[in-house]
Design a protein that fits this description.
The structure holds two protein chains of two kinds. Chain A is built from no helices and eleven strands. Helices cover about 0% and strands about 45% of the residues of chain A. Chain A has a single domain, classed as Immunoglobulins (Immunoglobulin-like, Sandwich), CATH 2.60.40. In chain A, strand 9 and strand 10 form a beta hairpin. The termini of chain A are far apart. In chain A, the strands form three sheets. In chain A, strands 2, 5, 6, 9, 10 and 11 form a six-stranded mixed sheet that branches. Chain A has a three-stranded antiparallel sheet with strand order 3-8-7, with no helix packed on it. In chain A, strands 1-4 form a two-stranded antiparallel ribbon. Chain B is mostly beta strands. Chain B is built from no helices and eleven strands. Chain B starts with a strand and ends with a strand. The chains are: A mainly beta, B mainly beta. At the A-B interface, strand 5, strand 6 and strand 10 of A face strand 4, strand 5 and strand 10 of B.
Chain lengths: ~110, ~120
């Protein structure tokens, strides 16, 4: 079965420190991977997707098919990065639903 | 462009009562999705509409949940009768493409509390 695992429920780092939010997935085909973010009192929004290989707000994520991972990284965390982050997987077989991880709450301390 | 709108933002009801959640997708988005996040758990798929047709309703938990999208515009999700385990945040999302490889646009969610 397809699954997305985010092993850390909470990640706390100091401002300026590097941050890595882990995401592992299980899917035998070629999935599309995403990171969504929900800031306090805001709606869930797309942060980035692996197919575009983009950097958004300083965050990047590389799809590693060998390790089935899609970790989210930022070299220098900012206080405004504090939010809930969800890793998600979509695939075009067996329907078009997206599978989400349980989320990691990132807290960036001053 | 207006985003995805959900109503109400919060609802507190007693066990056994009925609640109807509404979602207005972005205009022109044929694909509408319902998801739910139960406290402390992952966001789970409920169902997917393409226009007014149910493309996939494999995530609907049981027959107490009924979703409709008459006319292919807004959608409603009715829970009748509500149980305690139905508490959570219900998200609606829409997309233009059937396969969401560009990601979803989400509504702000409806927080449902069943007491």
């Amino acid at each position: 079965a397809q699954r997305v695992t985010q092993p850390e429920k909470l990640l706390s780092v100091f401002k300026g420190a590097p941050v890595e939010l882990k995401c592992n997935y299980s899917y035998s085909g070629s999935p599309e991977l995403f990171w969504y973010v929900q800031y306090s009192r805001q709606r869930l929004q797309l942060l980035l997707r692996h197919i575009s290989r983009e950097s958004i707000k300083g965050f990047t994520a590389d799809l590693n098919k060998g390790e089935t991972s899609f970790h989210l990284k930022k070299p220098f965390a900012q206080e405004e990065d504090s939010a809930m982050y969800y890793c998600a997987l979509s695939h075009d077989t067996g329907g078009f639903k997206t599978i989400f991880g349980a989320g990691t709450r990132l807290f960036v301390k001053a | 462009e207006a985003g995805v709108t959900q109503f109400p933002s919060h609802s507190v009801i007693e066990k056994g009562q009925t609640v109807t959640l509404r979602c207005d997708p972005i205009s022109g988005h044929d694909n509408l999705y319902w998801y739910r996040r139960v406290m402390g758990k992952e966001i789970k798929f409920l169902l997917h509409f393409v226009k007014e047709s149910k493309q996939d309703e494999s995530g609907m938990p049981n027959n107490r949940f009924l979703a409709e999208r008459t006319g292919g515009t807004y959608s409603t999700l009715k829970v009748q009768p509500a149980e305690l385990e139905d508490s959570g945040v219900y998200f609606c999302a829409s997309s233009q493409a059937q396969f969401p490889n560009y990601g979803y646009t989400f509504g702000s969610g409806t927080r449902l509390t069943v007491v």
